[in-house]
Amino acid sequence: MKYRRMPIEIESPEQIGYGSIRCNLTESSVTDMHLEQLNHLFNPADLALAYTDHIGKPELRELIAAGGKGLSAKDVLVTPSAAAALFIVSTALLEAQDHLVVMRPNYATNIETPRAIGCRVDFLDLRFEDGFRFNIHALEALIKPETRLISLTSPHNPTGMVLSQSELQAVINLAEKHNCYLLVDETYREMNFSAFCPLAAELSPRCISVSSLSKSYGLPGIRIGWIITRDAALQELFLAAKEQIFICNSIIDEELAYQALAHKDVLLPPILKRNRDAFESVKNWMAVQELIEWVEPQGGVVCFPRIKTDSGVDVDLFYRILNEECGTWVGPGHWFEMERRFMRIGYGWPNPQELADGLSNLSRALKAAQKG
Ligand SMILES: Cc1ncc(COP(=O)(O)O)c(C=O)c1O
């Protein structure tokens, strides 16, 4: 494995220091939940701080499986986060001689771990000009006899594109035809603005669904995610990987995750409502912007607009003014291997005032960085 740190991690607010950021529009989750919202639901003092079931707390797996049709607890492996789940899937399935097709841009781990393994990677590029939609024929053209894995993310980070059910089915048909696995990173699934797509793992044993509680529940600090597949031998392989890295999950994290999912009906609707309100604010703001353009997202907590080429905006100057003078941070395009004129704006995390201030600082920095 050849590891390297990713720009999105090196330049993350956790590393820069939250103290120097007044308006934080870099996050890709909703506002963080607080422990007091969950710990009154059980008595932490009752927990024996022991190793847990290596597959994951059975009741938690049952709740996760209940999120899809025809799934059962045995199809679910609980992992310490979606990032860990993605790492397990890549390292369990891919070796240097294998080939992978992965969406780009993407959440960095989906690309970086296969790169660290040294396998051959072809990118399924999502282009602004195509409304960030992917083309099934472009995907098929990238598949080779040695393709082991197709890796997609939906709802997508950073564009907010959502695969339709028929698009997902078409990719599954391809994976089945070419005898490869399909990984779908569904970490934002509950934040789809329209009807839910089924979990990919429901639709075929060739599919691997990955998700977590980080994004939609605002629980990135408890590090609980999961892998779902109906292929029992594959799940056993993933369990072997999990045991070698972690043995099991933290019992405290699992209990908090269980309580969050058990009280989903109460906890999730207000979070989703607040996220939609934040999205409406961004939409209203975008409607009057002249220097940037976007593809309107269909789900998630982020959008990915870009500075227009003919806007005359000096991109480096824009970021300097935005960060240094306005104390406002977004995710610049290079975090996603895209031109820096793209920017990811996370609208789900800041409170309404911080979001409003951040958006107006963006307008101000764009104007101030305009040449001539
Ligand atoms: C698409 C996607 N998948 C996975 C993750 C990792 O999430 P977790 O906190 O569960 O590791 C992220 C985090 O940004 C993400 O955007």
At CATH level 2, the architecture of the largest domain is 3-Layer(aba) Sandwich
Beta-strand content estimate: 5-15%
Q: What about the largest sheet?
A: 7 strands, mixed
Order of helices and strands: HHEHHEHEHEHEHEHEEHHHEEEHEEEH
Count of DSSP H/I helices: 14
Q: Tell how many strands the DSSP assignment holds.
A: 14
The stretches of 5 or more residues where confidence is low (pLDDT under 50) are: none
The CATH superfamily title of the largest domain: Type I PLP-dependent aspartate aminotransferase-like (Major domain)
**Largest sheet strand order:** 2-8-7-6-5-3-4
Highest CATH level, the class of the largest domain: Alpha Beta
Which bin fits the share of residues in helices? 25-40%
How far apart the termini lie comes to: 49 Å
Q: What's the pLDDT, averaged over the residues?
A: 96
Q: What would your notes on this structure say?
A:
The chain has 372 residues and is of the alpha/beta class. It has 14 helices and 14 strands. It has helices spanning 7-10, 13-16, 36-39, 58-65, 82-93, 108-117, 136-142, 165-177, 200-203, 232-245, 251-262, 264-286, 315-325, 352-368, and strands at 23-24, 76-79, 99-104, 120-125, 147-153, 181-185, 207-212, 225-228, 292-293, 302-303, 306-307, 328-329, 331-332, 343-346. The strands form four sheets. A seven-stranded mixed beta sheet has the order 2-8-7-6-5-3-4, sandwiched between helices. Helix 8 links the parallel strand 5 (147-153) and strand 6 (181-185). The protein is globular and about 65 Å long. The protein binds pyridoxal-5'-phosphate. The site of pyridoxal-5'-phosphate has 13 residues, from helix 5.
